[in-house]
Amino acid sequence: MGDRLSTTSSAEEQARSHASVRLGLLFGIGAYAIWGFFPLYFPLVEQATALEILSERFVFSLLFMVVVLTVTRSWSRLPPVLRHRRSMALLSAAAACIAGNWGVYIWAVNGGNVVEASFGYFINPLVLVLIGVVFLGERLRRLQWVAVGIAALAVVVLTWGLGRPPWIGLALAFSFAGYGTLKKLVGADPMASLTIETAVASPIALAYLVHLQLIGSLVLFHSSVPTSLLLMGTGVITAIPLVMFGAAANRIPLTSMGLLQYLTPIIQFVIGVAVLGETMPPVRWAGFAIVWAALVVFSYDGLRQGGRNRTARRAAAGGVDEVEAPV
Asked: According to the model, what pLDDT value does residue 323 have?
C-alpha cells in the first residue's frame, strides 16, 4: 500500500514538473518573440528621438513595475536587495549597461540598421562566455574557443564588407552580455532587480524629459494620441518580456534558454531583410553565414556538455531521470 502511494505521489510530482517546464517554455518563447518584433514597434514612434524614447522606457517601466508589485503584493521582495550595498552597486552598473543597450538599439532600428543589430544578438552568447573568461576566471572548452574564433572571423569579414567595424552589433552584444553578467553576480529576485534598475535610472530619464518639455522638444503628450500612447507603452513592452524571461529561467534548464535566445535575432534578421528591405550584399551574407556556423558549433558543444552533465547527475541520483525541456 505504501509503495503504491509512493508511486502515485512520484507520478503526480513528475506531471507537475513537466507542466512547469511546458509553462516555462511558453514564457521563454513569448519573451524572445516579443524582443524579436521590437523593430516593428519603434518606427511607430520615430517622431521622438532615441534619447526621449529611452527615457520613457525607463520611466514607464518603473511605473508599470510599481503597479505589478502592488497588485501582486510583492513589495517585500525589495528590502533584501536594498540592504546590500554590493547588490545596489551591481544593479546600478546593470542599469547603465541596459541603458546603453536600449539607446543603441532604438537608434539602430530607427536608423535602418536592424540587420546589424540582429548580428549583435547573434554573437551575444559568445561574448558572454568570453566575458566569463576575462572577468570571472572561467575556462572554455575546446569547441567553445573554436566558436569564439569563428565569430571573430565573422567580425573581420563584416568589417571588410562594411568598410568599418560592425560597431552597432558589437556595442549591443557587449552591453547586453555585461548586463547579463552583472545580473548573474547579483542573483536577486527578477522583479526586484528590474524595479531597482529602473528606479536607479528613472530620475535621470525624468530630468531629461523635463528638459525636453522646457525647450519645447518633447513629443510625448504633444503629438497625436496614438503616438503618445505608444510612447507610454514602451514601458509595458519592456517590462513584460523581462518578467516572462525571469519566469522561464526559473522553470527550464539554461541549455534550453540558450537555444531559445536565438529566436530574437532570427526574427529581427527576417524583419530587417524581408519587411524593412535592408540590403544584404554578398559579403554581408558571408559574415552572417560565418557567425551562424560559430553558433552551430557553440550550440552543439552546449548540448553535448548538457547531456554529459545529466548523465552524471542521473548516475549520482541512482538512475532517476530529471525533467528536461522539450527543445
From this structure: 37
Distance CA 96, CA 90 (A): 10
Q: What are phi and psi of 269, to 5 degrees?
A: -60, -45
Nearest Cα neighbor of 99 from 175, 34, 47 is 175
CA distance 284 to 286: 5
pLDDT of residue 24: 82
Asked if residues 299 and 259 have their Cβ atoms less than 8 Å apart, the reply is yes
Domain ranges of the chain: 16-316
Contact status, residue 258 vs residue 126, Cβ threshold 8 Å: no
Query: Cell for 168?
Result: 552597432
Question: Does the model's pTM come out above 0.85?
Answer: no
SS3 content of the chain, % helix, strand, coil (to 5): 80, 0, 20
Name the band, by pLDDT with cuts 50, 70 and 90, for residue 47: very high
